[in-house]
Design goal:
With 278 residues, the protein is of the alpha/beta class. The chain has a 7-stranded mixed β-sheet. α4 links the parallel β2 and β3. The chain is 23% helix and 32% strand.
Amino acid sequence: MGPRHKVKKDGSEGWDEYAPFYDWENARTLGRRDVPFWRRVAGGANGHVLELGCGTGRVSLPLAKAGVELVGIDRSAAMLDRLRSRAGLAGFGKARGRAGGHRPGAAARRMLTLARGDIRALPFAPRAFAMVIAPYGILQSLLRDRDLAATLDSVARVLRRSGVFGIDLVPDVPHWREYRNRVQLRGRASGGAHLTLIESVRQDPRRHLTTFEQRYVERRGDRVAEHRFELTFRTLSVRQMTNRLERAGFAVEAVLGDYRGRPWDERADVWIMMARRR
């Protein structure tokens, strides 16, 4: 056998495997506490809104139902399949939209478009959107500075001049203590299954990386199945993110510390940055 070469991760790994468990886990952790904030912000957009990393539709579906003309993009086919299933899109024809995605039928109150694609190279026309949102730490899945720079440049290209870019960062990820095989969650899932999440965490402070090793144990009667995957996140400070946004042609207008709009400080549970395209 020849030498083994370690493949460098870019942050896209693990999300297809996570898709069946994403909604179950987030219902027990984050829930929907950020949804009213994004609904309020996106509701003020004068035109189409783009959501980066729309996943299973935790944010995009409530926004579309509230009347926001939304385009959701995600790299994970498995995540998008679950979104379509939740929205009742499986029975509808898959009409091609200008974004290269799929338009739902009457299941959504207003038009929703889904596209599978890479946020580092958004497959949309220049100045196509009035607003772009990046909820719940999606930009932290970009593990290299060049990937973040490419994404911010791509967002600047598809955003109208003076359009708003809203970013939600999860600040506590680098502060998680390292541990091995800790039971984090237990409970019933749909279909009668019982799930146990066993988690390990490792930190790479030099590269600002945090990796969560996830092991889901799924029990259905006498049958037991294990599902293993890793998710890695990169966390930069508000100052570092501000510098990168400015380089890409944005002006940061507000930094918030919670979903009620209160000002940010170092102890805030979330870091929300609202930037405007210059």
